[in-house]
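Follow-up to my earlier ticket, as requested here are the two runs.
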Amino acid sequence: MVIKFGIIGCGRIAHRFVQGLREVPDAELVACWSRRAETVDSFVEQYGGKACKSAEELLLSDIDVVYIATLPDSHSLYSILAMNSGKHVLCEKPAAINLSILENVLDVAREKGLLFMEGMKPPFFPLYTKLKEYLLTDPIGPAGYVRAGSSVADISRDHPNFSYDLIGGSIMQIGIYEAFLAIDWLGATKKVQALGRFGDTGIDMFSIFQTEHEGGYAQLYSGFDLHGKGDALICGTLGNVTIHKNWWNPSRATINYLDGRTVELDEPFTAGGLNYEIAHFCELIRQHKSESDIISHDMSRQMIAMLDEAREQVGLKYKGE
């Protein structure tokens, strides 16, 4: 069964997506549309597929899946539109501006019986899966602390990350990765404490948030004007794991045990890494699943709920909230 993809949004992440899609067997690009017509034409010229003149035309195409690659301001809009047209949806993160809007998206997925998954790539990388498998037989004990973050100081100031109207800000654009890591290793969030510093465009330029979880504590940061390290530390009772930079595109990890042993894991990735997430999504379709067991609907709820609380505490609200 060949899974046929349509793409809404032809920006940076869509280019990386198609590079990954090309590496996935029995999956192909069929149609594309973007709010900017000129980007659609150049995108199709580079990667193939049909250039559509509207979202409606794309949704009438012979496709099974819509990959939502627009900016976060329209993720929920196009997800709902696609599912109401009978298409499965793989949506870039964050899948919605807040938990209330995400619930609207998930309600439609449930009503239509369609697969909806938020795009969160790290857990599908070979290194991450190998690490989880390795720790089953040589554990570090229950994880009780996670420290992670990213601050990227060389982004051009015309980047959408700096746009208030397009749901920019370091918490939404970067912090969602850290939210995933903390929840994945420590469980559900119980408490959030956050601080943030704003820039002249009305978004948070640098934020820190400490979180308490069922399994322990996390210290997380995200930013656009400091040069952060980009690694992650996971501590257990018997040892700790360092996922080396950039931890969200993981390829190398070091496990240090209490007994003095050190284990190095090295698992390079190919095609930019989105191919693993796409392959997982395609397999879910073939298995007639309505959600992923890795990036489940509940995981998406927990991630955006953490960010909602962090934004509340730093004072960042978007229009209409």
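Run two:
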Amino acid sequence: MVRDRILTSFSLFLAIGASAITSGCESAAQNQRPAAPPPPLVVVTQVEASDVPVMSEYPGQTYARNTVDVRGRVDGYIDKWLFHPGQEVHAGDVLYVLDLRPYEAAVQQAKGNLAQSEADLEFARKQVALLQAEANLAAAQANLLKAQQDHDRLEPLVKDDAAAQQELDTAVAALHAGQANVRANQANVDQTRLSTQTQISSTSGKMDAQRAALRTAELNLEYATIRAPISGLIGDTLVPVGGLVTANAAQPLTTIVPLDPIWVRFKVTESQYLSFKKNPTLLRSPLELILADNTQFPQKGRIENTLNQVDAKTGTLELQAAFPNPQHTLLPGQFGKVRVETELRRNVMLVPQKAIQQLQSEQTVLTVGPGNIVELRAIVTAERVGENWIVQQGLKPGDRVIVEGQLKVRPGARVTPQPYHSTTANQGS
């Protein structure tokens, strides 16, 4: 009996010990079990309805519209070269100086010829020869008057036999000679007067021609100093100092490129051009120019010209725009993209491109709903605006769209949302 009691007590002790050991192990196991992980972090943006301008981009190239070839107007050897290649020059700046001596001599010769003609004209206007002829005429008329008086006095005396017939004959001959002399001197006066008028007219015409010759010589002397016809950036010289410049040379001396404004040509399709024509404000909208390094040119441009026909090979039409370029940042021949507002979409929502998942023909986004639970939404997009897409269907204002962290979550999972800051917004700020 005692032995049975001892065995029973020992069994009970073992059972209690085993139970305690089991409870201790279970408690230790519970203490070592890991806690549940926190919800993953995701970056979200809250979409809002707004008016969004739709921008279109077209490849473009800069060019200088009024490039000028500098040429010589007269022949001569270059004596001075007064600019550096790539220098900014202004209209009227001296670029070259030719050998001026031949043209200075031509000017002096023209001035001397003109002075001689002016003296001849002054002499003709004083009518010295005419005055002499008129004096001779007056003397002949006086002699004729005396001969007439002698004749009139002798004629009655001869009738009365108071004078000899021979004296009357002599008086008649003297009268006739005086009349002939008067007529001759009168003709000489008329001839001299006509000659004087002709000389005055001829000398005046000669002086006009000599003034023109002097002006031509002065122009040639002026042209021997070659100046910049326009302002702009000048190229290298193609004729060195000592080289011969000819007025009819095929090769220019250098080239000047105007840089302000700078012109950009770009092409649009026929349908795009028709859209522009239907909305004339688009043709007057300010243009943006994106350069090769993806930076935006600070100045805005405007469309100035449209070519008169569509290219049959490409189906495109060339447009030409002018951009202010006061700092001469742009040079002809650079490539870029012309950006223009082609439409204003009203009351639409924008979603960053990296938030949109494309699966075949279906587009979806992940949103964070009530309780921070992830939901899958099918959407329909329209145009792309920068780094965003316009969403036409599938979202409503106030929805929170996951932009970063989509690969870490699944629909129905709980997440911890953080606000999204776009690169464009950071750059703009």
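The only thing I checked on run two: Residues 1-7, 424-429 have pLDDT under 50 and may be disordered. Let me know what else you need.
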